Amino acid sequence: MIAERPLSALELARASYRAIALYAPDRTPCEIDLSDNTNLWGPPPAAAAVVRDAQASLLTRYPSLYAPVLKETIATYAGVSPDEIVTGCGSDDVLDSAIRAFSEPGQRVAYSDPSFPMVPIFARMNGLDPVAVPLRRDLDIDAERLLEADARIIYVCSPNNPTGTLASPRAIARVLEDAPGIVILDEAYAEFAGTGYVGSAAGHGRVLVVRTMSKAFGLAGLRIGYGCGAPELVAEVEKSRGPYKISAAAEAAAVAALREDTEWVGTHLDEALHVRAEFARSLAEIGLAPIPSRANFVLVPVPDAVAVAARMRARGVAVRPFPGLTGLGDALRITIGPRPMMQRCLDLLREALACA
Questions:
Q1: What's the pTM value of the predicted model, to 2 decimals?
Q2: Are strands 182-186 and 224-228 parallel, antiparallel or unpaired?
Q3: Alpha-carbon gap, residue 208 to 232, rounded angstroms
Q4: What is the 3-state secondary structure (H, E, C) of 20-43?
Q5: Which residues, 6 or more positions from 134, have their beta carbon under 8 angstroms from its beta carbon?
Q6: Are the C-beta atoms of 173 and 146 separated by less than 8 Å?
Q7: Which fold, 45-260?
Q8: Any alpha helices (H) in 223-320, and if so which ranges?
Q9: Which of 131, 144, 196, 141 has its CA nearest to residue 163?
Q10: Which of 295, 308, 321, 343 sits 20 to 30 Å CA-CA off 234?
Q11: Which architecture, in CATH terms, is 25-42+263-354?
C-alpha cells in the first residue's frame, strides 16, 4: 500500500486565507511621507516624555490585562462610562475583534466601496464573506444596499478612508434602525470632522463606534485604538480581543496625552484644518478637483496615479496611489502636514503631472 503524500503547509492552511494578500503599501523611507495619514506635527509632549523616561518596570513586567486606567481616561475624554469602552492594539485590532465576536464563519460583512481596505481582509481572516457596496454618486453610503446585503456586520467609515467624506446622518440613521446585526462605525478621523457618534453609541445597543489615537493624537507607533458601545456589547469584543494587547508604555503614554495634552492636540487639529483648506485651493488652482475632505488628508483624482506617485517618491515625497477606485478611477491620497511639506508636495505633484 502506497502511503499518501503528506499535505503541504499551504494545503493545510485555512481555505479562506488563500485569497488574502498581505497588506503591503509602499513604506520605503522617504524625506517627506504623506502616505499614511499620521500626525506630521509629532506626538503630544506629555506622551513623548513618558516614552523617553519610561521606567524599567514598564518594560520588564506584563502590562495590565485590559488597560483599566486607559479605559477610564478615554471614557472621561469621550464623555461616556468606562464600561462602555474596549481598547485594542490600534483600531484595526478592535475591528478584527468585533467582527470575530459577533459573527460565525460563512456570514457576511457588508462595507462601502471604496473604504478601509483591511475590512474585507478581516472578513476573510474570520471566515466571513465580504460584500462590497459602492458609494452613491454623491459619495454618501448607500444605506439601502448595505441593508439588502443581509449582513451580520455592517461597516461604515465616516469620515471615510480614502475619500475623506462623511456619511450623512440620514443614511447612518437608516442603517442603525434596520441593520439585521451589528453596525461598526469607524471614526478614526472624527476629531478632524468635529462630529461623531461616540457619545451616543451605547444607547443604540448594537453599535460599536471605533476610534484611534494614531491620527489626531499622533501615537500611531504605540498602537492605541478603542471602541465605544453598550456595556454588554463591548464586553463581548473584549473577550475576543484577549488580554495584554496594549503595552504598559503605550498605555502610560496614551493616558498622559489624554490627561495633559488635549489642548496641544486641539491646536494642531486647527492648524491641520487650515492647511487642508489651503492645500485643496492650491490643487484646484493647478486644474485638479480634490474631493472635499473632513479628515486629515485629501483625495485627488489624477491620471495614472501609480506612475505619478512613483515620480514623486523618487524626488522625496511619498503619497498614496489608489488605482481604479470604484466610481472614481485613479486618485492620490495626500496626508495633510505643516505648510512647508505641503508646498513641496504641490511643487512635485505639478512636475509629476507634467511628465505624464
A1: 0.95
A2: unpaired
A3: 11
A4: CCCCCCCCCCCCEECCCCCCCCCC
A5: 112, 113, 142, 145, 326, 327
A6: no
A7: Aspartate Aminotransferase; domain 2 (3.40.640)
A8: 231-241, 248-260, 262-285, 305-314
A9: 141
A10: 295
A11: Alpha-Beta Complex (3.90)
pLDDT in tens, the chain (356 residues): 556 778 787 777 887 787 788 877 777 888 999 999 999 999 999 999 999 998 888 889 999 999 999 999 999 999 999 999 999 999 999 999 999 999 999 999 999 999 999 999 999 999 999 999 999 999 999 999 999 999 999 999 999 999 999 999 999 999 999 999 999 999 999 999 999 999 999 999 999 999 999 999 999 999 999 999 999 999 999 999 999 999 999 999 999 999 999 999 999 999 999 999 999 999 999 999 999 999 999 999 999 999 999 999 999 999 999 999 999 999 999 999 999 999 999 999 999 999 86
Q: Where are the domains of the chain?
A: 25-42+263-354, 45-260
DSSP 19: T
Yes or no: say if 72 and 251 are a contact pair by the CB < 8 Å rule: no
Radius of gyration of the chain (CA): 21
For residue 133, which amino acid is it?
V
Q: How far apart are CA 190 and CA 164, in angstroms?
A: 10
Residue 185 corresponds to which cell in the numbers above?
A: 462605525
156: region left, alpha or beta (phi > 0 left; psi from -120 to 50 alpha): beta
